[in-house]
Amino acid sequence: MTDPRDFVAHEAALLDERRLDDWLALFAEDGHYWVPLLGAAQADPFSHNSLAYEDRLLLQLRVDRLKNPRAHSQHPASHSQHVLQPSRIEREEGDEAWLRTPFLYVEARGENQILLSGTARHHLVRTPTGWSIREKRIDLLNAPRALPAIQLFI
Amino acid sequence: MTIYRNRPDLVAALVQDDRVHRDLYLSEELFALEQENLFANTWVFLGHASQVPEAGDFVTQDIAGRPLMMVRQPDGDVHVLYNRCAHKGTQLVTDESGNTGRFFRCPYHAWTYKLDGAPLGLPLKNGYEGTQLKACESGQGLSVVKHVKVYRDFVFVRLSDTGPSFEDYFGEVLGAIDNMVDRSPEGKLTVGGGVLRNVVHCNWKMYLENINDTVHPMSTHESATKAAEALWEGHAPTDPKPMAMEQILPFGSGYEFFDKMGGRVFANGHSVLGVNFSIHSNYAQLPEYEAAMRAAHGEARATEILQRSPQNSVFYPSLSVKGSPQAIRVIRPLAANRTLIEAWSFRAAGAPALLFERAMSYNRLVFSPMSVVAHDDVHLFESIQQGLRAGGNEWVSLHRNYDPAETQQATVTTNGTNELLMRNQFRAWAKSMAAGMEAAA
User: Fold this and answer.
1) How many CB atoms lie within 10 A of CB A111?
2) ipTM (interface predicted TM)
3) Radius of gyration from C-alpha coordinates of chain A
4) How far is CA B379 from CA A78, A111, A149, B375, B385, in A?
5) What CA–CA distance (Å, rounded) separates A134 from A11?
6) Three-state SS annotation for B61-73
7) Average pLDDT for residues B418-423, to the nearest whole number?
8) Counting beta carbons within 10 angstroms of the beta carbon of residue B410, is it exposed (0 to 12), middle (13 to 18) or buried (19 or more)?
9) For B236, left (φ over 0), alpha (ψ -120 to 50), or beta?
């Protein structure tokens, strides 16, 4: 899988199949998952808060929590569906690539489902075994507004 | 069908000494009566003065179903006005915040108002000659909220003309705001990093009750704390923890920890949970910051401020303060079964950036819509909201550690798992509802 656009589609598919360990393995050691509270308008994760800003330790915590049978909010379990527009490569430089992928995200649980939309922005690094994620940033369309619980990874 | 309107006796009967009736959580009629009475005749948190630093800055906020706006005046004061044009009722501003310049101009017919709401001008003025406009409400300018208190930059309103004064209403619990503000060596806080907003499908009182519930973390948050403990296994207790671990691991503390942290209730529903210690007590010390605090406040006061880190201080009915991580939660009821929860972070002037980072990190981990901790709370609140519809038992138990003597005292200090902190909220609920309904009668 050398085309980074294929990697982005694969990454979303792993989430929708709930293969969370495989998904987490896609992140570089210093990788981050970031959902800024101001969406696309936010410059950094430090001067303003985020809906999520997580390193591998916290992502591991999130994945392990979801697997715990006492994760009450996962009875019944949540499922996600990413509907991606074609990814656009913004920049490729040496072993790094930056992509933008507009998406619709549906998260369903029991009788309810929520719909979110936005743009995923991947910063990828090429490793001997393929691409890995240095940063996955999700710019939600209405990030600062009141939201319901989002249980899975967008 | 109305059951409770004009029946303060029936409303009062919903709150017994050691239990409350399920209608408190389910009834839309009671929700409407709360909007008219409880949220109108108590002091409700609107916002923070740092949100409107310059003259003409405004923030809009709905309180008890009334659209309001907080506006910085040219003389530096903060006023609260109804966001309703005196002419037809158009909202003057529909942005959440902004700067209106030197006056408000209604987008519909261009009536204008000064920043304090006084009428400034209107088009086709001649058309009003000989009419009663000037004498009637519509000619007086914008309606003003008369009872506004800016306490150390925390802005509260009381919409009703009747009801207790600000100081009488909050009394000693104001020490929790003092503690939070005094954690700035310069005595100044500013809202920072935005507000995390969640919509939870439960009654607002259930959420507020849970802020004082120390028996749920062990079972409710088991998934998050077990995962954190497993990840942190093998580290010595003295090993420096990443901030997220420092903040999540204490949720897994046992019943004894929460019982011993202690709680205190005050008249009118307010409380402090964690009068002895709390899950926030063991954050890493910051020697330079503490030196700055001693220089600013003196040795004794600085120690008192820094050692005091309660779990939650509740300013009934809508504000919960965490002095140590410099964060507040604001409860904004939307319907009987829908509540907006806001989590705000603060920067403390003269304090290191790490304090602000702590506030943001705590809110993000615990109160974000993508939190790792809150999903299980939210699931259970929504579950209770459904479960209470079941027949067979119309009552919710608040019996733990009930003592008949407690009803005779305004301030009581007790163990941290006592449901007194919740009973105290419901007694205040009954009192405010009755006062409002009797005043309206």
Assistant:
1) 6
2) 0.96
3) 15
4) 12, 13, 9, 6, 10
5) 13
6) EEECCEEEEEEEC
7) 98
8) exposed
9) beta
Q: How far is CA B326 from CA A106, A120, B39, in A?
A: 34, 32, 25
pLDDT per position as a tens digit, B18-50: 999 999 999 999 999 999 999 999 999 999 999
Closest CA to A148 of B196, B218, B31: B196
CB A8 within 8 A of CB A122: yes
pTM: 0.96
Residues of B in contact with A52 (CB under 8 A): 364, 368, 370
Q: Are B225 and B370 in contact (CB under 8 A)?
A: no
Mark out chain B residues that contact chain A at CB-CB < 8 A. Answer: 192-199, 219-220, 222-224, 226-228, 230-231, 242, 244-245, 248, 340, 345, 357, 360, 363-364, 368-370, 372, 374-376, 378-380
Q: Which of B203, B157, B186, B153 is nearest to B328 (CA)?
A: B153
Helix and strand tally (H, E) in chain B? 16, 20
- Rounded Cα distance between B207 and B192, Å, is 24
User: What is the pLDDT of chain B when averaged over all its residues?
Assistant: 96
Helix axis angle for B299-307 and B174-182, nearest 10°, is 110
B365-387 pLDDT, tens digit per residue, is 999 999 999 999 999 999 999 99
On the 0-12 / 13-18 / 19+ scale of CB atoms within 10 A, B30 is buried
Please report, to the nearest 10 degrees, the dihedral formed by the alpha carbons of residues B342, B343, B348, B352 taken in order: -160
Whether A111 and chain B come into contact, CB under 8 Å, resolves to no
Would you give the distance in Å from CA B210 to the centre of its chain?
Answer: 13
